[in-house]
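Ticket 4471: requesting a sanity check on a complex prediction with zinc ion. Repro inputs:
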Amino acid sequence: MTYRKLIRIYLIIALIIMALSIFWLSGFHDWIEQRYATTFFPVLGSALRFLFGWIPFSIGDLMYSTLGILFVYQLGLFLKGIFQKGTVWHQKLQPLNGAVLIVLFVYVYFYLFWGLNYYRRGIEFQLKLEPTTATRSELLSLNALLISRLNASKQVCLQNNDTLMTSERMFSSALEGYHTMEAKFSFIRYRYASLKPSLFGKIGNYVGFQGYYNPFTGEAQINTRIPNFVQPFVTCHEMAHQLGYASESEANFVGFLAAIHSKDKLLQYSSYLDMFLSSWNNLHAIDSVAAKELRKELHDGVKRDLRTYKEFVLQHRTFLQNWTNELYDYYLRKNRQRKGIGSYNEVTGWLIAYHKKFHVL
Ligand SMILES: [Zn+2]
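Returned structure tokens:
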């Protein structure tokens, strides 16, 4: 056995041991909250943003592409080897070693440097919120409140002819929101911005992603090919991921809180719109008549945006989206979010609890 092969085998064994340790650790939620999510991860996240934030394009996207190509190449070598005559089985399996190594490395790195945040106590614990199952009347008042906020911010934006958000403004307003929020909740501490338009924007529209956090580089990528009024909230959502709120509901809720702490009306509008859609869906599930009745109260400008958004989704609907949705749903379920993609709507309970406690929204 050559020296190189021996190192490879040792590496695989070490990574398997690390993967098993991560699995074991994930059961200790208090430990993860105190020692990982609020101690180790914030330092790591800031360091990564400091390192890669200043580079104008996404290093993480390049890294993903390279890893993807390497993986396919190794797999290709393996398949080629299978059909090659004259080679023995251990030679045929050799390229597979490389592929296994890549998969194991990605798995361990992902959980060690971000994914363990899925198992933390999170924002509900930090804000000492006590959400209960929302009643019909609670959902009605939440929806009414969000509609009034939504209509008011739309009105101001239209009056000021302020309808287009540039990436630069979106990133700086979101940052301002997080900084203002820090004055109220000191555990929110966002330093060194690392926000970038995704290099895969157009593909993203067909695959169905609006933004994503790259745990390898700490960068937040925003798909700037989606409707303009959706992008500001996606930015705030991805920034919450950067702060270690891994679950989708938490990223939505923290992102929303940051947005309403910003002075930028377009950013506020985008975030109220997202919260309204979640809350409205929850209301619709228990009282569709009341939900439809409430929807009529939306400002014409808001209705127009919702139509634009629907058209956008329909135009980009592909079989790939069903497939990626299913895959993502599985991924979320696996990561302690039993409701899968449905967990996006879990945020409604927190909105009600937050409003009860802090009397603002
Ligand atoms: Zn997310």
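Notes from triage: The radius of gyration is 23 Å. Leaving this open until the requester confirms.
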